[in-house]
Amino acid sequence: MNTPTVSRRNFLKASSLTGLALSLGIYIPTNAEEAEIINAAEADSFGVEMNAWIHIEPSGKVTIFSHRAEMGQGVYQAIPQMVAEELEVDLDKVNIVFAKGDNKKYGNQVTGGSSTVRGSYKNLLTLGATARQLLIQAAATKWNVPSSDCYAEAGQVIHRPTAKRLHYGELVADAMKLETPKNVTLKKRSDYKLVGKPLLRQDTKLKTNGTATFGLDKEIPGMLYATVERNPRLRGKVKNFDDSATRKIPGVKHVFKTKMLVFNTYREGVAVVATSTWAALQGKKALKVEWDDSGFEHLSTDEIFKRQQQALQTQEGLSFKQQGDASAVISQATKKLDVVYETPYQYHACMEPLNCIAHYQDDKLEIWGPIQAPEWVQDAISKEMGLDREKVIVHMTFLGGGFGRKAFMDYPHEAAVISKEIKAPVQVVWTREDDATQGPYRPGISYRCEGVVENGKINAFKLRMAGQNNDHWRGGPKDKANRSTSEGFLKPYADGIKNLSIADVPFETPIPTMWWRSVYASTNGFAYESFMDELAHEAGKDPMTFRREHLPDERLHRQLDKLADVSGWKTRKPGEGYGMAITECFASTVGHVVKVSKGQDGKLKIDHVWAVMDCGWYVNPDTIKAQVEGSIVMALGAATQHQVTFKDGVPVDKNFYSYQLPRINDIPPIDVYVMDNDEPAGGVGEPGLPAFAPALANAIFDLTGKRIRKLPFNLATV
């Protein structure tokens, strides 16, 4: 991109647009490999709309825009922490604002796949450094001194020889006239003041004093409230309904049939709209609905897993990865392992149930709520409702947990349909029971793992999975293996195993499934790393040593050394069960060691968990530790306490009385360590989960000799 000189016309136009403030954004030209940093005048010259990421006013107030959703994972802290580092401002004096959903301005805004830092950190650092350089140049020009004699610190530019200083606000008007510098020099990591430091999160105060706005907190003038009685089976229809009792509830205004898009089908229901959430809920309870659930199977949990495991015994599946000839080696071996693992369906269990506000106005629709994927919402709803994409305006609030569920388009679409019907703004609120029983869920999956060990090493490793492919719900090709078949399985294993086969056995049910924290790594990791432990036992080798021998990668060796050191792996004592596992997820690798023992009552207990994360370049070690700890708690629940079960196609577990989450007294001591290196940034919010369940199961085997191959299991009865 050839940046034009800022003309007086462009400067005046940009000044009017930004209110005489220095605004910088990130622009990625078509077919360009790298982003450019531009100001408002340059954006006007290129005919693109300004996407302010940094906004500095003459008062000195600095605003940094966060383009991703904050659902507890820490991007509300990480994005400004990166920008403020290079901008040289105090983070606690920065105003942080959620950007509106607009991928033409801000690029990909989907919060998922642990992608925010790893996908944006270089651009965000460059953005801050560019603003700093502009302000330094403006000050140097004002003082008529070389810019090399000036430096920035704490929101000011200082002249080194004389100690003269100007705060950023005093330099805005001059900085706006300057051409944006290219190829700015970023700081060395050794010079960081903010990045890499365990700074307190900026959203903590908001969330503890009640000023943070979550979806359920948001209100707009004239808003009504709605709840929906939905068909408990996705493909079922509303046959008829009796709303006579509902309409007698004070405050109830409307009752009508509605629907929302769920992937490529629709879930039908009956909406109750009222002047308060309470009235809507009471009206919903009074409804009498008859469903038509004909034309599709109503499966129960036992039948689902029975079919999966039958398929694993009779089908080779769609090949995902092949090297050597694992099948031939296994068929000819006199001694081999052939086992099946099973992982259950799971509900996302966000503490804030789904909710969304929509206001449909002729040719425009505005949406407010806890939304992980604003651009996907714009794409889906504009198509469904016949609106121009730019006319679907999405405002993000804080999310009380997301885990993938709030990266979906069904609940905003439902709110939009109801708003259009009643010709008024409406907030649709889901109850905990709605949230738990409507799905989509993490798919339940069965795995068949076969292997041969010869001379202490793996000679053949054959893995097949049978479970629902989330891509199929979105219309993906059914003749190709699930693209996540090997997710969680360390890529360097392929270099250490001569005969390797990984395949996907297609499997479908009418039960809707989608992403869940760490996606398929959360289930794959349990099967693959548990089986790796079985192969190590078959070889008569220490599990950590065995993995090292099959992972020809020095970076991983350093991580395993750290894991062994912090956990005391080499000084294990009799009567103590130690298990380990290591998985890769979203460009980060996490190893866990779990220690278990039996108490005086004979019941198994988890004594300690150690986790070592290698996520490459990182922002805040406290955020990393919090995310890994949270991942371990979530993994503990999924491994030992909760699952979604189905009877006749209907979810059985409707609330926390049966879908029980871990309590504080269930949580063992957890130590988290972060590897330091200069590798590219990896994810943090999800990779800490997959290795826990296999590490726990492997520890139980080490202590008791009993293999756990089915989740969840009851710790008290092992």
UniProtKB/TrEMBL annotation:
PROSITE patterns: TAT. Pfam families: MoCoBD_1 (PF02738), MoCoBD_2 (PF20256). Residues 1-32 form the signal peptide. The keyword Signal applies. It comes from the Bacteria. This is Xanthine dehydrogenase family protein molybdopterin-binding subunit. One of its GO terms (molecular function) is oxidoreductase activity. InterPro entries: Ald_Oxase/Xan_DH_a/b, AldOxase/xan_DH_MoCoBD1, AldOxase/xan_DH_MoCoBD2, AldOxase/xan_DH_Mopterin-bd_sf, N-heterocyclic_Hydroxylase, OxRdtase_Mopterin-bd_su_IorB, TAT_signal, TAT_signal_bac_arc. Residues 209-295 form the Aldehyde oxidase/xanthine dehydrogenase a/b hammerhead domain. Keywords: Signal.
